[in-house]
Amino acid sequence: YETPSSLALMLGRGGLAELDLSALRLLLFAGEVMPPKHLRELMRLAHGARFANLYGPTETNVCTWLDVKSPPLDDTPLSIGRASCGDVTHVLDEAMQPVARAEVGELWVSGPTVMKGYWGRADRTAGSLREISTPSGPVTAYRTGDLVRERADGDFDFLGRRDHQVKTRGYRVELGEIETALLKHAQVAEAV
């Protein structure tokens, strides 16, 4: 398992192209979006390996996955796949109602990989874990904050965040916190 940015560094500066990768059987990547150009290069170098794009916030561990069977033909971002075994994905609108396939909604996850709550943070838990209605009855689900669209094949396209949070090198970063820190400096008038 590795983050795409680490793999890109290995490709660009780590001499990965000079290594014998014939023994590599499985490469899992997660934590951020994998640039298709890097994936094409990795798949060329380790042509005998299986590749999988994993998605999941810390609160759910890995909740979706995509078995990447062939190199991407263009630079369209990879799908995040479909629900992992045991997990259930729900794409809901602002009123917490399911959206139709191909419509944009927020991804919620229920199942055995979902956390029980934040230690000592009942307020944060209440904001992230909620009971939602499903055809088989109410379940507790985690609100990811990620916007997705379900494709005709059942896989999900990741479209971005509902808030201003980004992920870099597998870590969540609140852009507002960076702006606030920059604005504390006497010579910074505005920060975006």
Description:
The protein is α+β, with helices and mostly antiparallel strands. It is globular, with a radius of gyration of 19 Å. The strands form three sheets. Strands 5, 6, 7, 8 and 9 form a five-stranded antiparallel sheet that branches. A four-stranded mixed sheet has the order 1-2-3-4, with no helix packed on it. Strands 10-11 form a two-stranded antiparallel sheet. It is built from four helices and eleven strands, in the order H-E-H-E-E-E-E-E-H-E-E-E-E-E-H. The model has no long low-confidence stretch (mean pLDDT 90).
In short:
With 192 residues, this protein is an alpha+beta fold.
Topology of helices and strands:
Layout: H1 4-13, E1 26-29, H2 36-45, E2 50-55, E3 64-68, E4 82-83, E5 88-92, E6 104-110, H3 122-128, E7 129-132, E8 139-150, E9 156-161, E10 165-168, E11 171-174, H4 175-183
Parallel strand pairs: 1-2
Antiparallel strand pairs: 2-3, 3-4, 5-6, 6-8, 7-8, 8-9, 10-11
Task: Write out key terms for the chains shown.
four-stranded mixed beta sheet, 19% helix, five-stranded antiparallel beta sheet, 192 residues, globular, single chain, alpha+beta
Based on CA inertia axes, which overall geometry fits? globular
Low-pLDDT segments, ≥5 res: none
What is the end-to-end distance? 33 Å
* CA gyration radius, whole angstroms: 19 Å
Number of strands: 11
- Give helix % range: 10-25%
* Arithmetic mean of pLDDT: 90
- Largest beta-sheet characterization: 5 strands, antiparallel
Per DSSP, the total helix count is 4
